[in-house]
Write a structure and sequence with these properties.
Distance between the termini: 75 Å
CATH superfamily of the domain at 582-693: Golgi alpha-mannosidase II
Strand order of the largest sheet: 12-13-18-19-20-21-22-23
Helix content: 10-25%
Shape: elongated
Radius of gyration: 27 Å
Largest sheet: 8 strands, parallel, barrel
Structural class: alpha/beta
CATH class of the domain at 582-693: Mainly Beta
CATH topology of the domain at 582-693: Immunoglobulin-like
Number of strands: 30
Strand content: 15-25%
Number of helices: 14
Oligomer: single chain
């Protein structure tokens, strides 16, 4: 960096050679002999770059950026002879301090660069580095070699998404990885994921966050911001997820994870949180957007208070042009520099609210994301609701680009599978692609992400082990978390040695997975569900950095039957294209989708009906005619279901039946009556049968 004879600086500021910087290059960028710093604020009157020696808490220099270096609302300066490996930096701003007007400028407060590529102070999980009361940024260089990387693409309806928490996935010693709780730890589990059959992983937040944000103790246990839905910096990966300190080229491990996943046919999606930040409300800290331009970046009431559509204290002002620009630059950065394959947007309905908080018919931010040429190849998935009461499942603005977490799928199928009255037709709608929510002629087959479980709520095992949430360990007297779980404990609350109860739970889990994996639309489930991981009834484990949230890999051996059932069901889904999307018409005379009750071709359901049949049919140009019939008996008594009659030369073959131990060796075809017209289903069981040519 140091070779002053090769350049001519224009100004000497506080002992540093400086000149105006590159105004379109946001953040801090290493140049040949200098570092370029660029930042903008509409309401600040002045800006300084504050420099720290590596690891120190007190600055060694402050360089005011001259007014002559300001163009419009942008300050840009090149500072020469800085050793990027030995410095850290932040900003200070001058301007009006009047919270009632939304202005919080204070020249004594250090402000983290929102464009920082790496943040100091939290490289070791759960430990603060040094005594600094502010975050420092590092100047990064990109030395990652992508090699012969070739981006893969998987059709949306073919996706089987596995949602996981980077730390919780491998932190337990039972994971037996060399680098537990890190990006490298996830890499070590790629062979497992590939064998399981999933083709996409969705990482819970990996942007830099402070796990010690609002840390507290309850009954002697440390509770923290474990999930990470409180972003500190949007351009930096979480340093504590790296297995080794990378310092000036943070992100190499995450890039390596994405590269190796793609090499193994697995896409990587990021769960991104643009709806709020970790600065909180009026009682929160000032370290980033508040001190940069509070009234621009946050939704405020007329008296300067924070609007809280996020449930986390503040709400990003997403449709302000400056905030739109920031979000777009951030998304493009992760696609260009990290080759990310898709994004899941937390509380995405907030991204469609205007600056006054009202929902917009055609939100400019969502439309810009949909049509952006850099983002055109990535998957966009919205959590189509927010904490302010806006629920947009089926109506989220899409431009045929946005997909949605189908919350209606989760709710309707949970109700039907546990035997609620009046839910049969809703279950059929969800299994067949939710055309009532996403009309194919308008949304195609790329809108619905079907799921029964995710990080937020019960695990699949807990869904059938608990009637009520058990969040006492969170320290809020069990008042936090959703009260409407539509779960069923199968007759006993929590763990039991009762064989009948446990057998029923296993059957219910298999019913759920069979239904999910035989439904039209993309599929998602939560990590560990395939081997009955439990959170002991906690349905809001956001603060539990312990055995509640860490996957217990010993359960893989204990519940191997469920794992193998899920893996083989995924393979079954991949084998039969008709389960995933419409194909060429079948020469058998069957429609693409048909609905049946206990009698074939009868699609009328009464309030107390608990048996449904769904048949998918079509023709694969390679394998010929195909048909799959799904029968579900959610009733508590044995029921028969009539199968559609097949042309001569074909019979029905039972591939999966949930009432018996999986791979028991039993001939399930005996379930079908001798004339091939009826199946007898045990109480609370499901079956998948496919076409077989004689």
């Amino acid at each position: 960096m140091k070779n002053s004879a090769t350049y001519k600086a224009t100004d000497k500021i506080n002992g540093f050679d400086c000149r105006p910087g590159i105004y379109t290059l946001n953040g801090a960028s290493a140049m040949l002999h200098a570092v370029n710093f660029t930042i903008h604020s509409a309401n600040a009157t002045g800006c300084s770059v504050v420099l720290f020696k590596r690891g120190e808490t007190e600055p060694y220099a402050e360089i005011p950026i001259p007014d002559s270096y300001r163009i419009g609302d942008t300050w840009s300066i090149m500072i020469y002879d800085l050793d990027i490996y030995e410095i850290e930096y932040c900003y200070r701003f001058t301007g009006e301090y009047d919270p009632r007007k939304g202005h919080l400028f204070d020249p004594k407060v250090n402000i983290l660069d929102p464009y920082a590529r790496a943040v100091t102070g939290q490289s070791v999980w759960g430990k603060k580095s040094g005594a600094s009361d502010c975050y420092h940024a590092r100047v990064c260089t990109d030395k990652f070699d992508w090699g012969t990387y070739h981006k893969i693409n998987i059709d949306f309806s073919d996706l089987v998404i596995y949602e996981l928490h980077v730390r919780g996935f491998t932190h337990s010693l039972t994971s037996k990885v060399k680098h537990p709780g890190t990006f490298d730890g996830v890499i070590e589990k790629i062979p497992y994921l590939k064998k399981l059959g999933v083709n996409a992983i969705e990482l819970m937040p990996v942007f830099e966050f402070d796990e010690l944000y609002e840390e507290r103790h309850h009954n002697g246990d440390l509770l923290m911001n474990y999930w990470g839905y409180n972003t500190t910096c949007f351009f930096a990966p979480n340093t504590s997820y790296a297995s080794s300190s990378e310092y000036n080229h943070e992100g190499d491990e995450l890039k390596n994870l994405i590269r190796i996943c793609n090499e193994n046919g697995i896409l990587v999606f990021l769960d991104v949180v643009f709806n709020h930040t970790s600065e909180g409300n009026e009682d929160g800290t000032v370290f980033s957007f508040k001190g940069l331009d509070n009234s621009v970046y946050y939704m405020l009431t007329p008296d300067g208070k924070y609007v809280n559509f996020s449930g986390c204290g503040n709400t990003m002002n997403c449709n302000h042009p400056i905030v739109q620009q920031f979000i777009m630059e951030c998304l493009r950065y992760w696609v260009i520099e990290y080759r990310v394959d898709g994004f899941r947007f937390d509380l995405a309905s907030i991204l469609g609210r205007s600056e006054d908080g009202t929902p917009m018919e055609n939100p400019p931010l969502l439309k810009t994301i949909a049509y952006d040429p850099i983002l055109s190849g990535v998957k966009l998935i919205a959590e189509a609701w927010d904490a302010g009461g806006l629920y947009q499942v089926g109506s989220f603005p899409s431009w045929n680009r946005w997909a949605e977490w189908n919350g209606r799928y989760r709710d309707d199928l949970r109700c039907f599978l546990k035997g609620d009255n009046g839910t049969a037709w809703a279950a059929v709608q969800r299994i067949t692609g939710s055309a009532d929510l996403y009309p194919p002629e308008m949304r195609g087959q790329n809108a619905s992400v079907n799921f029964l479980t995710c990080h937020d709520g019960f695990t699949m095992y807990d869904l059938y082990s608990y009637n009520h949430k058990h969040n006492e360990a969170n320290g809020w007297n069990n008042t936090d978390g959703d009260n409407s779980n539509t779960s069923w404990n199968c007759g006993f609350e929590g763990e039991t040695s009762d064989k009948a109860v446990n057998d029923l739970r296993i059957r219910m889990i298999k019913n759920a997975f069979l239904t999910l994996l035989c439904s039209r639309g993309a599929v998602m489930f939560f990590a560990g569900d395939e081997f009955c991981n439990t959170q002991f009834g906690n349905n809001n484990a956001y603060c539990q950095d312990n055995e509640v949230s860490w996957l217990d890999w010993t359960r893989l051996k204990k519940y191997r039957e469920i794992h193998d059932f899920v893996s083989d069901m995924i393979a079954f889904r991949k084998k039969h294209k008709i389960l995933r999307h419409k194909t060429s018409p079948s020469s058998l005379g069957f429609p693409d989708i048909s609905v049946h009750n206990t009698y074939a071709w009868n699609s009328q359901f009464k309030n107390d009906d608990h048996v449904i049949g769904v048949m998918f049919a079509g023709r694969d140009e390679k394998s010929g005619d195909d048909a799959v019939f799904i029968g579900i008996n959610a009733y508590w008594e044995t029921c028969s279901i009539e199968l559609p009659k097949l042309p001569d030369g074909y019979v029905w073959h039972v591939d999966f039946y949930t009432n018996v131990p999986y791979k028991s060796g039993e001939d399930h075809d005996k379930m079908i009556s001798k004339n091939g017209s009826f199946l007898t289903l045990a109480p609370r069981s499901a079956v998948a049968v496919s076409l077989k040519k004689l």
